[in-house]
């Protein structure tokens, strides 16, 4: 297996020697350059995995070099080093696309940790690129590879040449309207209108007017004739969402349309004939509503010709990584920012959540992360507070949360760690210690800061570190912590 290639660009010979020695001892393949132009020329033939470059050098300076690299190799991490640690240099570095900014003098361990972070970042991008080339792109934004969703796709395919009525059931937020759109798009009616109407979103006394339209003078304020949704959807598909909320009187009129293909506008006396395919959806148990006398049994049988069940997100957790990647990419594009990347431990945690709001809740979470998280990588502690407090219950295990204390025995925790390591190795991942160590450190640091209410000096004592070590780790792991103004007053 080839070693990771690191390039060091610095006109300071002593700095080049120290970094070369450190990185080689770590098993990395290191090449150093005295000035940036030589490195640029070499890039055309052989690009490294990570570059560390000084800012102020003879010839091409580090920021100019960074800009040229990003134009041609946008995913290549470049770490900027400089002895001139001013705000302008830092801002310019990040604006030009630096992976990280490293002010001199720095701890050599800090530089090494940054390089390993950059390598992990590169590996993640390569895995995502490989996944793009092997995963077929699905249309209509219905995303999923789980067996339950494959059943949905098969049903849509089988109905592609049909005009038959379909009833879609599933919890709120599962994507029922997306399935209705897909049924229309892949039907002989695809060139005709798709009209949607949510029964739960319209006042009951307006539903009939919305569905069937009205004649001029039918009621106070009806100054002109108005088409209803049935006429608007003529030749196409009418999607009636939350059909279980339709008033009983309106159900009778709908039944007549389904039986005869015609209706009367409100206040009208001339029948209007339409050719419309009905796709209905509900999160309710219609059989129960029928038994309670709240839904017409004959209408239920008219609608329930073909039923498609949309599983809740918790029952298709294997689709969460793909869905989240899609939503993060879309949110990033809408907001004009780079898409966030979920850390493996974050994805694992999200796959265990119950997601009561289903796909809609996941989409909203991805939008929140895109707006609120400053870094590119998303860690479990970055998730919204309501998700971090949700207990995760697995068979035979005690409940755990991302924010609370893990209420399991150390022995059990040890077993889970072993299972995690075995799974990673089976998946072909290398250097799993580099993955696990930052996870452990981040968890312990956050716990110590929470215990001490953000007092870094006391947190460092709990961890068995010096305060400088904790400060370095906070920066290295990208953990935000409040300034210790109160502590400084105590010292």
Automatic annotation (TrEMBL):
The keyword Nucleotide-binding applies. One of its GO terms (cellular component) is cytoplasm. Keywords: Activator, ATP-binding, Cytoplasm, DNA-binding, Nitrogen fixation, Nucleotide-binding, Phosphoprotein, Repressor, Transcription, Transcription regulation, Two-component regulatory system. Residues 142-371 form the Sigma-54 factor interaction domain. SMART domains: AAA, REC. Member of the two-component regulatory system NtrB/NtrC, which controls expression of the nitrogen-regulated (ntr) genes in response to nitrogen limitation. Phosphorylated NtrC binds directly to DNA and stimulates the formation of open promoter-sigma54-RNA polymerase complexes. This is DNA-binding transcriptional regulator NtrC. The lineage of its organism: Bacteria, Pseudomonadati, Pseudomonadota, Gammaproteobacteria, Moraxellales. The gene is ntrC.
């Amino acid at each position: 297996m080839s070693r990771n290639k690191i390039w060091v660009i610095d006109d300071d010979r002593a700095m080049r020697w120290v970094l070369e020695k450190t990185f080689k001892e770590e098993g990395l393949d290191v090449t150093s350059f005295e000035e940036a132009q030589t490195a640029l020329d070499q890039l055309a033939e052989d690009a490294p995995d990570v570059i560390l470059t000084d800012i102020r050098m003879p010839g091409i300076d580090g920021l100019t070099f960074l800009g040229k690299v990003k134009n041609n190799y946008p995913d290549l991490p470049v770490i900027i080093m400089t002895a001139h640690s001013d705000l302008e240099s830092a801002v310019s570095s990040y604006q030009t696309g630096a992976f990280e900014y490293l002010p001199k003098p720095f701890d050599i361990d800090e530089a090494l940790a940054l390089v390993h972070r950059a390598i992990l970042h590169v590996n993640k991008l390569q895995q995502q690129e490989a996944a793009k080339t092997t995963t077929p792109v699905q249309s209509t934004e219905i995303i999923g590879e789980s067996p339950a969703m494959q059943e949905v796709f098969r049903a849509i395919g089988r109905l592609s040449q049909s005009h038959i009525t379909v009833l879609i059931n599933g919890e709120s937020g599962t994507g029922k309207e997306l399935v209705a759109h897909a049924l229309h798009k892949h039907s002989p009616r695809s060139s005709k209108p798709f009209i949607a109407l949510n029964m739960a979103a319209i006042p009951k006394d307006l539903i009939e007017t919305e569905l069937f339209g009205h004649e001029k003078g039918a009621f106070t304020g009806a100054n002109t004739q108005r088409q209803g949704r049935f006429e608007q959807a003529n030749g196409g598909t009418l999607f009636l969402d939350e059909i279980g909320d339709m008033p009983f009187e309106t159900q009778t009129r709908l039944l007549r349309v389904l039986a005869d293909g015609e209706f009367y506008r409100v206040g009208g006396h001339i029948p209007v004939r339409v050719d419309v395919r009905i796709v209905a959806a509900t999160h309710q148990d219609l059989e129960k509503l029928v038994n309670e006398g709240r839904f017409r049994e004959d209408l239920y049988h008219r609608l329930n010709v073909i039923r498609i069940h949309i599983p809740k997100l918790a029952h298709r957790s294997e689709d969460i990584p793909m869905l989240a990647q899609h939503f993060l990419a879309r949110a990033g594009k809408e907001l004009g920012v780079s898409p966030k990347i979920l850390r493996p431990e974050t994805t694992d945690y999200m796959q265990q959540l119950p997601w009561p709001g289903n796909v809609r809740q996941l989409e909203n979470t991805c939008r929140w992360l895109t707006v609120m998280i400053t870094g590119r990588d998303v860690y479990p502690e970055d998730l919204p507070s309501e998700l971090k407090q949700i207990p995760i219950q697995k068979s035979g295990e005690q409940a755990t949360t991302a924010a609370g204390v893990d209420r399991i025995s150390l022995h059990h925790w040890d077993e889970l760690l072993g299972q995690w390591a075995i799974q990673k190795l089976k998946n072909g991942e290398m250097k799993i210690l580099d993955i696990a160590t930052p996870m452990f450190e981040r968890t312990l640091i956050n716990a110590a800061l929470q215990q001490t209410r953000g007092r870094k000096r006391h947190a460092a004592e709990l961890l068995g570190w010096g305060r400088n070590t904790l400060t370095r780790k906070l920066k290295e792991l990208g953990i935000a912590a409040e300034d210790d103004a109160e502590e400084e007053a105590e010292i």
